[in-house]
Amino acid sequence: MEHRFNYQWTLADAKFTKDKGKVFSCFACGGGSTMGYKLAGFDVVGHNDIDKRMTEVYRANHNPKYTFLESITTFAKRKDLPKELYNLDILDGSPPCSSFSMAGNREKDWGKEKKFKEGQTEQVLDTLFFDFIDLAKELQPKVIVAENVSGMLMGKAKEYVKKIYTEFKKSGYDLKIKPYLLDASNMGVPQKRKRVFFIALRKDLSHNFNEYIDMFQTAPKLNLKFTEKNIYFKDVQDININRAKLPKSDFKHWDNSNKNGRSFETKNKTKFGFFYKALGNLVCSTIDTSSRYAIEESKHLLSDSEFIKVGSFPLDYNFIKNNPQYLIGMSVPPIMIAQISTEIYNQWLKHI
Q: How far apart are CA 224 and CA 184, in angstroms?
């Protein structure tokens, strides 16, 4: 079998076994990571998010047992959480990452309060990761999975990563020597999406893996090498459908874009973000929330269906009234999390 999970799937036909353990998801957005855990056989018992619109979408698609619509800062300080959350196998979280993205302002935004679409209150985004760790310290799940952009491993952000490691250790967790930098295109996702994953095991559980521990690290090794066959844009492209044409006002950006061996590319930053061309014989690049994506051969914009397949979202996902590109651009690809959590179960959890 070329792929462990099928990127073209539906919620209606999916069989979620819920026999691998319990998960709670923070910064859950529309549930990209939640769907991945479900596909891998986990029971996602609840979620936290600050955005009312995303919470409505999450509820419509997942019907969670527990919903907490509030900032992670206040949520982490709660002392009235359900007992079930103190017995988690995985605590999952994707702290907002725009202050570390290479497409953002990076250092210029660090330490500043900003108001984002993710919520109606001002937040200092680069401190939310530490609020998430505070929650982990309180709940003490067996494993913590925290996802972020690859920009966290570049430049001055490396010092931030060191602080994350320090706080994880203070909270009772062991991590791999460095974070995992993974590309979704190697995991059965039709998209080149690089993400950083911090995956930590509670220290008192390491004794289950004494035979695997070496002198350089206390946590057992977790092998996350994926080499699945690439899925190209031509594999997800919709045929014989009515689709929107690229506006003539954008032709200058089209003409100034060049081909450099990637499925989407640009030299021109525009008012709506970046401009990308989709090439049929290559893997799609990262889908973000606001850029323009058009098919190279025809100058037509990508369809909602193509965004859904590229993001490995279920074909029958209920976006309510939200733009699929925006929500998918905000989310971790479900198949990416399904792959990672399957290995966490196979290599760690089932031995505990």
A: 12
